[in-house]
Amino acid sequence: MLRRSPTRRDLFRLAVAAPIVLAGCGGRAVENSANTSAQGSAGRLLPSQAPLPQPFLRALPLPPVLKPVRSDAGTDYYEITQKRGTARILDDLDTEVWGYDGVFPGPTIVSRSGRRTVVQHTNELPVPVVVHLHGGRVAADQDGYPTDYLHPVSGRVADSHGQGLNGAQGSRDYVYEIDQPAATLWYHDHRMDFTGPQVYRGLAGFHLVTDEEEEALGLPSGERDVPLMIVDRSFAADGSFRYPSVDPSLLGTPGVTAEYMSGVLGDCVLVNGAPWPVLEVAPARYRFRILNASNARRFRLRLDSELDDLDRGARFVQIGSDQGLLAAPVPLDRLDVAQGERFDVVVDFSAHADGDLVTMVNERGEGATAQVMRFVVTGTTEDVRDGSRLPDRLADPEVLSEADVVATREFTFRRGGAEAHGMSLWTVNGEAFDPERVLAQVRMGTVERWTVVSQNNEHPFHVHLGAFQVLGTTGATAGRADGGWKDTVNLDNGGRAELLVRFDGHRGAAVLHCHNLEHEDMMMMANFEVV
Ligand code: C2O
Ligand code: CU
Q: Which ligand is nearest to the CA of 490?
């Protein structure tokens, strides 16, 4: 059942209109903001006002791995407090983060497939929060529905619609029956209307799932299994994250000022919270779990090294997608990573000499955002032991068949179709998000064919509760590395994706939406229900 409130709909309309009025911009300005940058990333650059650090000086931080507070026969129990913290990202200024345990990225949770994970979240922030396990095939009421609030310890906060008094206050448990293959998942805030600013302030972390099949492969592990959360951010003159919220308290009117409605692009690239960091690597194989946790920026990643022979020099070999291992490794010179997508890759540095530099660049960036991070190869293959393997066969994922399709649906993502004060909003099938409307009822365990289309702008399409396989895509990045089980797929401007979708295991209502977080906050979301 939907967690809904009877008067929400009208209040909702009011809320989406408000930021546009307050921003005081005419319709033309808003229309112009839908333009994409030269590289095609939806959004507009918000320049930093504080001096940015030099690239490749900071060591890559690793998010702490969270220890269970206790475990019993079938369950591991964790506790996280969402609170303010301080990070030193810039050279001379502190940055306040809103983080899980006060850090950004939040602590990494590692779950074993087949066991239950219970995470007790306590909200010491001044705003309501919602925790979504992105990629988790979990119960609908544990999934982080946008109005399923966890209110602050300090008291319930009426949201800007005069709603939102439902939900828990102080603390609540999220119960995840983890019964899916090994995969790189992540958790992040999903508060109605405010996901963009709350993730931007730091509410994002990794949640890894492991299983026996994966362990048996002998892939790089331990300190050679490295999660990389890539984001762009901008900084205000006082060192705080700069974001164009209409109301920076995040307690009143939601939304960004009109000119940033198509997305907020930062000018500083952070990996695991550090600007353009460096990782010292042995001349050996590494596993990198790459996540683009940016609000609006897409990356096209490539490894640049002194070895021109790509077959010898470090390159990406994809081993996993959003929700698990591929059947076989796929060498890729470039990774197109949209917001919310994960690419699990192995990179072999063993052809490199002591001191070689390998730089991860972003071919879609310009200026400082054209660079991401750097690897410094240290040592020689004589002194380094690499016991890892990269098998030809990784897994045996089920391949969905078109012959099993029981229903077909089309979802169109575009600007327009719904309006507030003469301004067009981001919509799904021409409708702004309405928590009371259900766009699709899907029978559990059946295969459906979904066509998702972008009519203007770029939209990473994401679905909760389940997963899909990509039959094909059209657009500038068509056919690039969409193998395996996915929950997020990029739509180019004017592009489309043909998907085979299946929901197993959990009935209930959840959302599908665009993972450009400014679009999402501006209504590009819809309900579906698994029945
Ligand atoms: Cu990563 Cu509904 O979101
Ligand atoms: Cu979008």
A: 2
